[in-house]
């Protein structure tokens, strides 16, 4: 038990309840999906919810059954004390952070950007912060500030009305314009659409593994990779891509030859590496073929590496002995695989494939 993370949960109840009602088709907020998700992350030892409970009288019993302490913030007659609950919640969180040093993780259940400074301060105090909020009512400022952010409407057990579920956009790691749908697209083609998102995910994972290999002398484990992906995107979840567990995602990428898995020091935490790309001639040929397939006659160096990784996510010039992608391209030009010229007007190198056929 000493190795378990201790969690303290704080609920900005009005923000969550109204967010679920207004953006999830009138869905009644339920704490149980949050409780279940947190049970997988550690031992919850404090649960507090803040609101004027005269407005949420029916919710008291649900929260009490889940052992949530209800903090009453009454509103004065004639006007709303909008920030009273927020201030009390922030003060209690900071007080607990100083008084209970064994609490490693603070769970802030809100989508309000006003809590962003609190999140920053908790992280300064060496606390891990998990955010929870309704997706459409969560400020864009809050998730990046957290170590991990869970969207309430994506948690297991939350069943929003069908129209809202169907209209919710599919998750991607970064905004990517959707390609135009071919005129002859069938239902089967539409079912296969997530592969585009998986391609973006494969590139991100391969780049992350490559960076970890460069920055650490040891092997990269699955747990380290997951933590790093969450640092890059706190809203990342393998479930958004159709995988039940992170290990299932890794196995999928291994089968696609994006990663190589080996038994790690701990059970269920495999070591991860990038597969060997092959000799330099093969890499130069790959670069030449990509240039030949692009519509432009001359292709700028900037952005070219991303195009290459979309075709071969595991590509890394470092594994071939080059310090930078420019050095790799200069070596390819030396062998005659490509032509490399400096364009002073563009302020960039331009590459041309030598494959005319």
TrEMBL record:
Positions of the UniProt region annotated as Disordered: 162-195
Positions in coiled-coil regions: none
Domain HTH OST-type: 197-276, 279-355
Gene Ontology MF terms in the entry: RNA nuclease activity
InterPro entries in the cross-refs: NYN, OST-HTH/LOTUS_dom
CDD domains the UniProt entry points to: PIN_LabA-like_N_1 (cd11297)
Protein name per UniProt: HTH OST-type domain-containing protein
Source species of the chain: Phytoactinopolyspora halophila
Organism ancestry: Bacteria, Bacillati, Actinomycetota, Actinomycetes, Jiangellales
């Amino acid at each position: 038990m000493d190795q378990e993370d201790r969690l303290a949960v704080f609920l900005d109840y009005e923000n969550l309840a109204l967010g679920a009602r207004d953006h999830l088709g009138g869905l009644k907020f339920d704490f149980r999906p949050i409780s279940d998700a947190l049970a997988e992350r550690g031992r919850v030892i404090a649960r507090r919810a803040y609101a004027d409970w005269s407005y949420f009288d029916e919710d008291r019993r649900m929260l009490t059954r889940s052992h949530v302490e209800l903090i009453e913030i009454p509103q004065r007659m004639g006007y709303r004390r909008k920030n009273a609950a927020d201030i009390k919640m922030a003060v209690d969180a900071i007080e607990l952070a100083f008084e209970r040093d064994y609490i490693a993780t603070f769970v802030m259940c809100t989508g309000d950007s006003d809590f962003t400074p609190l999140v920053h301060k908790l992280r300064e105090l060496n606390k891990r912060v998990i955010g929870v909020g309704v997706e459409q009512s969560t400020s864009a400022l809050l998730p990046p500030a957290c170590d991990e952010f869970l969207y309430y409407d994506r948690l297991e057990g939350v069943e929003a009305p069908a129209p809202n579920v169907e209209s919710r956009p599919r998750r991607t790691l970064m905004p990517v314009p959707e390609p135009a749908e071919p005129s002859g697209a069938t239902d089967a083609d539409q079912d296969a659409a997530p592969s585009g998102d998986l391609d973006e995910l494969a590139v991100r994972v391969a780049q992350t593994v490559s960076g970890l290999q460069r920055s650490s002398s040891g092997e990269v484990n699955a747990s380290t990779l997951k933590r790093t992906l969450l640092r890059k995107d706190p809203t990342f979840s393998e479930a958004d891509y159709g995988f039940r567990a992170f290990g299932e995602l890794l196995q999928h990428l291994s089968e696609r030859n994006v990663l190589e898995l080996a038994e790690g020091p701990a059970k269920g935490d495999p070591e991860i590496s990038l597969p060997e790309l092959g000799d330099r001639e093969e890499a130069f040929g790959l670069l030449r073929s990509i240039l030949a397939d692009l519509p432009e006659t001359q292709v700028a160096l900037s952005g070219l590496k991303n195009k290459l990784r979309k075709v071969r996510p595991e590509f890394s010039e470092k594994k071939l002995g080059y310090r930078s992608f420019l050095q790799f391209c200069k070596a390819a030009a030396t062998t005659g695989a490509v032509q490399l010229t400096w364009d002073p007007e563009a302020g960039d190198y331009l590459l041309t494939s030598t494959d005319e056929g």
